[in-house]
């Protein structure tokens, strides 16, 4: 089973690349952002809670995110593997993911970070915000707050996964096909 954690700052291209990689490697794509947006659109309790954090540009608390992810994995226990997009975002989430996967005798195979300059990403998100309808993509201050959250809470995952020998970094700037090729080079060597 191949389980890949794909991470990077908002706007780095995780969702775009995950769509390509899930087909190429026959993985189940689990995007916490997509799951939260579905719940927010349908006004579920989880959706209301998630919206209260996301609209401020904050990350949803670990406990809510972890329980939601476990539920999604349980729906696909016969999968060839998972592509985790947007999770884990913190070291406690990574530890919880490792513990949960271990209960199934699975593990994270690799983590791949899509790296990109903040200024390029801010412009990407502002452009996306014109068509996505996402409030968090239309306000530069909220975008920059999301990057501060990332730097404070998510960047430490680099050390966590480097310590396990599972961290890989890929340049996330360029045409979609170029970035996919870079990601595939890493995945094909796993």
Automatic annotation (TrEMBL):
ATP binds at residues 11-16, 128, 174. Pathway: Purine metabolism; AMP biosynthesis via salvage pathway; AMP from ADP: step 1/1. Its EC number is 2.7.4.3. AMP binds at residues 32, 37, 58-60, 86-89, 93, 134, 146. SUPFAM superfamilies: P-loop containing nucleoside triphosphate hydrolases. Keywords: ATP-binding, Cytoplasm, Kinase, Nucleotide biosynthesis, Nucleotide-binding, Transferase. Residues 31-60 are annotated as: NMP. PROSITE patterns: ADENYLATE_KINASE. It comes from the Bacteria. It holds the Pfam family ADK. It is found in: Cytoplasm. GO terms for molecular function: AMP kinase activity. It catalyses: AMP + ATP = 2 ADP. The keyword Nucleus does not apply. HAMAP family: Adenylate_kinase_Adk. Monomer. Belongs to the adenylate kinase family. Consists of three domains, a large central CORE domain and two small peripheral domains, NMPbind and LID, which undergo movements during catalysis. The LID domain closes over the site of phosphoryl transfer upon ATP binding. Assembling and dissambling the active center during each catalytic cycle provides an effective means to prevent ATP hydrolysis. Catalyzes the reversible transfer of the terminal phosphate group between ATP and AMP. Plays an important role in cellular energy homeostasis and in adenine nucleotide metabolism. This is Adenylate kinase. The lineage of its organism: Bacteria, Pseudomonadati, Bacteroidota, Flavobacteriia, Flavobacteriales.
């Amino acid at each position: 089973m191949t389980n890949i954690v794909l991470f990077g700052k908002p706007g780095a291209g995780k969702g775009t690349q995950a769509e390509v990689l899930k087909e190429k490697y026959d993985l189940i794509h689990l995007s916490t952002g997509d799951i939260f947006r579905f719940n927010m659109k349908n006004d579920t309790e989880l959706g209301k809670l998630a919206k209260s954090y996301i609209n401020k540009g904050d990350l949803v608390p670990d406990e809510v995110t972890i329980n939601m992810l476990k539920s999604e994995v349980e729906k696909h226990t016969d999968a060839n593997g998972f592509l985790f997009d947007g999770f884990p975002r913190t070291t406690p989430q990574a530890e919880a993911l490792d513990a949960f996967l271990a209960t199934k005798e699975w593990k994270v195979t690799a983590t791949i970070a899509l790296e990109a300059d903040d200024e390029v990403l801010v412009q990407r998100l502002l452009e996306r915000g014109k068509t996505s309808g996402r409030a968090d993509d239309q306000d530069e201050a909220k975008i920059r707050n999301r990057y501060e959250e990332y730097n404070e809470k998510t960047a430490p995952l680099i050390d966590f996964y480097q310590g396990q020998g599972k961290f890989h970094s890929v340049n996330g700037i360029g045409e979609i096909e170029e970035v996919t090729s870079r990601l595939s080079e890493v995945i094909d060597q796993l």
